[in-house]
Amino acid sequence: MTAPAFHEQTWDLEYRHALGDTIGRFLGGLTERRLLGRRCPGCERVLLPARAFCDRCHRDTTDWVEVAPRGELAMFTIVYEPFRNMPEPPYVIAYALLEGADTALLGYLKGVELADVRAATAVITVGAPVRVVFADEPAGRVTDYWFELDRR
User: Fold this and answer.
1) Which of 6, 15, 17, 54 is buried deepest, with most CB atoms within 10 A?
2) Angstrom distance (rounded) from CA 32 to CA 44
3) Whose CA is closest to 110, among 132, 127, 125, 128?
4) For the segment 116-148, what is each residue's pLDDT rounded down to a tens digit?
């Protein structure tokens, strides 16, 4: 049996995105602690974050819909290795399906002890209830919010 082969590669990319009306309004909503999605007139799904067109029907989205700041964890990963320009590990990147949305929203999951992976994954589970928490002074960035387990 031969040892696995590896190819190392480094990507260092910077992006400058034109916001447009849809993402601009979604990010503006964050400054008001609001989660804004858009409804597809074809399949009637609410897309969050808001998108200008439906990825399923390929139709322009229409109505703005405010989504509830509660839902459930759809998937997650705990990051224990450092990545450039990312938080110091460990941290959790998660998708949550919020009430009123038909697509999951990406964000960090905070408030869980991550030192022991077995203990962390016993607490963080797919389907666990979560709530959105906003920064004290949101600035219209996707880092203005994060998820926490909703332990009501």
Assistant:
1) 54
2) 25
3) 132
4) 999 999 999 999 999 999 999 999 999 999 999
Could you tell me the two tokens for 120?
A: 């962390």
pLDDT tens, residue by residue, 85-122: 889 999 999 999 999 999 999 999 999 999 999 999 99
Q: Which two tokens stand for residue 116?
A: 């022991």
Rounded to two decimals, the pTM is 0.88
Length of the chain: 152
The sign one gets for the Cα dihedral 101, 106, 111, 113 is positive
CA 19 to chain centre: 18
CA-based R_g, the chain, Å: 18
Token pair belonging to 81: 């290795």
Helix %, strand %, coil % of the chain (to 5): 15, 30, 55
Residue matched to tokens 């110091």: 88
